[in-house]
Amino acid sequence: MIGRLWKAWRDRREARNRAALDALKVRYHTFRILLANNERALERLAGVEAALASGAPGGELAGLVEDLQAVTFELVDGVSRLAGQGANALYARQLRLEEALRAALEAVEDTGRGPSCLPLARPLDAREVGGKAAGLSELRRNGFPVPDGFAVTVTACRAFLRETGLDARLRQALGRDGGNDALAAVRADILATPLPGWLAGDLRAAAGRLAPAALAARSSALSEDLAEHSFAGQFETVLHLSPDTLGQGFLTVMAGAFSERAVAYRREAGLPPAVLDMAVCVQAMVPAVGAGVVFTSDPVRPETGRMLVSAVPGLGVLAVDGAAPADIIRIRRDDPTDMDLRLAKKTLRAVPDPAGGVRREAVPPGEADRPVLSPAVLTRLVRLALAAESLAGTPRDLEYAVDVTDRVWLLQSRPARVAHGSRRQTAPDPYYQGGMTASPGRCLGVLRHMATEADLAAATNGPAGPVIAVLPTAAPEAARFLPGWQGLVVAGGNPADHLSTVARETGRPLLTRAAGAVEALPDGAAAVLDAGRCLVTPAHPAIGDLGELLASPAADAGKPAPAPLSPARARIHDLTLPLTLTDAYGPTFAAIECRTLHDIIRFAHETAILALFEAGDEVLEESFSQVRILRGGVPFEVMVIDLGGGLREEAAGRFIGPSDVASIPLAALWQGLATPGLRFGAPPPGSDIRGVMAKGATDGRSRRPVGEPNYALAARDYVNVNARVEFHFAMIDAVCGPRAGGNYVRLRFKGGGAATPLRHRRASCLEEILQAGGFFVNRQGDLVTAHLLDASREATEKGLVLLGRLLGFTRLLDAAMTDDAAPRRAAAAFLAGDYGLATFAPDHPAGHRALEQA
Length: 854
Prior knowledge:
Blueprint: H1 2-54, H2 58-83, H3 88-106, E1 117-119, H4 126-141, E2 149-152, H5 154-163, H6 166-176, H7 180-192, H8 197-208, E3 215-219, E4 237-241, H9 246-256, H10 260-268, E5 280-284, E6 288-295, E7 306-313, H11 317-321, E8 327-332, E9 339-342, E10 348-352, E11 358-362, H12 375-392, E12 396-403, E13 408-415, E14 432-433, E15 436-439, E16 442-449, H13 453-458, E17 467-471, E18 487-490, H14 498-506, E19 510-512, H15 517-520, E20 526-530, E21 535-538, H16 546-549, H17 567-576, H18 597-622, E22 628-630, E23 638-644, E24 655-656, H19 664-673, E25 711-715, E26 718-725, E27 728-735, E28 744-751, H20 756-772, E29 776-780, E30 783-789, H21 793-809, H22 822-831, H23 845-853
Helix pairs in contact: 1-2, 1-14, 1-18, 2-3, 2-18, 3-17, 6-7, 7-9, 19-21, 20-22, 22-23
């Protein structure tokens, strides 16, 4: 009777244990589905971003937003299955956002026409606004002194012709004979045609943002300012306009596309004369006292290694027209102090006419022989020109102006054309080539390596120069610092991750999955990042101090001015794209703080990882008999819960060895634990363990109670570990498979039985080791968090081996942290392979060598 009762009780217990393990497996598969949905959500977020930027029709935009909402809801539903009732607040935020988005989508106008006037402060596409406006935008966003302005897109210009019926009349007139009379009639038609209401309103609004400055309207055709054909001097520029006269100036530039000289140039270049590819660039005018042109390489004799500068008094129109005598200066590129100056006797200058437009006047006799540019202004102009050349990657033909305060302004930048047969300059060897484009664009700045959150906060654009951040992994924490940098290079990551999404939103170039970039890029060097070409090259050495030369966006300046959006589209943008939850360990990282769908995506991912840790604790409590105990040559045991594919099928018995492990990440972690020389059985040499209290420590920052045993939830490409080594607690979560896009390693390490200063020093030691291992690290007191994201299988395994070694290395390490230099000595010893700290003593010669190498 007793035997039957015992058997029944045991069977019921085993059934409960199996049920608990089955429930954990279900939660694990829910977690993996959530990870896949996280990637899908980020991809759809990028689709909404692109649709808003391009002015996609309302129906297309609505479909993309609804698709994003559906995937985000699946994320929230997955979190609710993992975290239970704690997800109710997230459901509520999701529903509120859906209601707000539904109202915004219903209000979206469906004209099929995107914004007509795009500010130069945002990234501009040369295919939409022409090379001139796109080039000025790139210069301005990189801190060059470029007057503020905007570009009227080629799409808007074509819509103007189409809606007014001018395009049909143009094709008919030019197709019939294309003679001068036909061209004159075309221009007269354009000048006499009223602007459509939408275009007139957009021009007034955009011009109003530049008030009270006078305005200049210039051509920016798609076929203009190219290496193949520049159209130099073929189109129209209208100066000294007001917001009231800008519309007529716009029409004048449009009509200039059909002048006799412009059409003849098009035919000579093999371009169809009746096709309009004109965009218009509008800028605030510089009250110039001098102006001219700079060729960064002498266009006639580039082999001399000199630049060519022309300068005239007043506005630059006489310099580009060649209508007045100009000072000519030839300057050594590698030594800007070496100048060959030929002064002209100035006779004419162009000045703004108070009645509008420009007039010419005689140069006062006392100024006729005076140099237009002072030596200081000329030196600064040369440095700016070389910086513009470095940014573009080719010699430049620049127009500039100097105001009454001697400030130099750049008005145009296009590829320089050199004499046929001349020897061209060779490009510098790149620092790095490779990776993937996450956010296209070029930027000029100082390379700054960052591996901790403290690095992120310290390295922002400012007096030290514009910053190109170099990160080991795509740390989401970097998102809030991103507006303070010019660009980013990330060794890990992928184009759909959080950081890439924010980079595109803020218009910052980002090169991702750039394996080897951290080692190849010299910290502190001036460089150019061309994210579109996956290239990082040195800047010209004669540029000098970038911080003094270029203006930089402040860290709190936020994103560049967006393209004008309707109120409904702006509302959709604000409810979907921004990421405000950037600190996963801060007090505001909560469901109630999710303000956008991007926030919900981030919050759901972080919450899911914590929920799986909690699930492991529950299984240990409820189904201890279902776990296997991993042992193997080191005084460290791990209770393994096989989620499917984590252990080999032939593994038998309660106790298993390393050869029974099929989980790729768990095997890598154990490989690190089994490294010869780790001090599992002894305190560090020369340490005093009397100060290490034999007491448990709890992690007050964590939502989960720290369990006593070491355990691992393991699958073929996944591991979730809770480890206790003496008084330290480590939580590790990792995916390691063949596809880099889904791989990651996350570490949370805290605790210790020593006094607070010793624990903090131990945390500092871990921080240095993890940085060297390619992790992004955040240290707060004795809490260290680190992650490695989207790395290759090999790099992910290497990171896990490092963490395994750290689990053994940190045993009683606090006892050795007796002085402020101890963390660095211990880290140097570890990185040199001295895991037993034989060279740790301050006076050990090998320790000194390791420190120097570190």
